[in-house]
Design goal:
This protein is an alpha/beta fold. The chain is 47% helix and 19% strand. Strands 1-2-3-4-5-6-7-8 form an eight-stranded parallel beta barrel, surrounded by six helices. Helix 4 runs parallel beside helix 5, helix 6 runs parallel beside helix 7 and helix 7 runs parallel beside helix 8.
């Protein structure tokens, strides 16, 4: 994946309009190292939105893939074939499913990021107790990195102790209350931020304000 660290920020492009997505990606490209696109935008704008956005920055397809190995492979082939440079998958489905994603990512020269623990409060209920095991599975499957919550920096620190030098990308900054600085200090490599930027009156100014706090 061609994601060179310049700013340490990943934009979560959580919008539904193709036009707004392209406008935001174009105007904010200098502020972010990659752009994360999920189901809402892909379902609203079509799979081709991946290739369109990838003209501005590397795209991570955040589909949190969680199915049997064959279905996981088919999903990965679709988004990576459309131009995504990375894909996010869950680990709780087990090693065979996760390896199917890892193998497919390898064939496309793309990165697999594995969810260890999500950033919302409910993640504490079932994901929290299993986060360490899911981090170890990510290592065993040869993933490029993991997803760990910026809303709980202490969890980033614990996950870093397991994954070593693997990349950690952390959502939850801004609208969910996480601190970019705290997450980076805990061991995150990249901060994922969305609503607090794209819903601002001046998204570019807001993005640059965040950059000034962490660079």
């Amino acid at each position: 994946m061609d994601m060179k660290r310049k700013t340490g920020l990943i934009l979560a492009l959580d919008v539904l309009s193709r036009e707004r997505a392209i406008d935001l990606a174009t105007s904010l490209a200098d502020c972010f190292d990659a752009i994360k696109i999920g189901y809402p935008l892909i379902l609203a704008a079509g799979l081709e939105i991946i290739s369109e956005i990838s003209k501005q920055a590397p795209v991570i397809a955040d589909l949190k893939i969680a199915d049997i190995p064959n279905t996981d492979r088919l999903i990965c082939e679709q988004v990576l074939g459309a131009g995504a440079s990375g894909v996010i998958a869950h680990a709780f489905t087990g090693s065979d499913s996760l390896r199917a994603c890892a193998n497919c990512a390898g064939q496309f020269g793309a990165d697999l990021f594995v969810v260890t623990e999500m950033s919302h409060p409910g993640a504490r209920e079932f994901m929290g107790p299993a986060a360490a095991d899911m981090a170890r599975l990510a290592v065993d499957c040869g993933a490029a990195g993991v997803v760990a919550p910026a809303t709980r920096p202490e969890r980033i620190k614990m996950i870093r102790s397991i994954v070593g030098q693997m990349l950690i990308i952390s959502p939850g900054v801004g609208a969910q209350g996480g601190s970019a600085k705290s997450a980076l200090q805990a061991g995150a490599d990249y901060i994922i931020v969305g609503r607090s930027i794209i819903d601002a009156d001046d998204p570019e100014a807001k993005a640059r304000e965040l950059l000034s706090q962490i660079l």
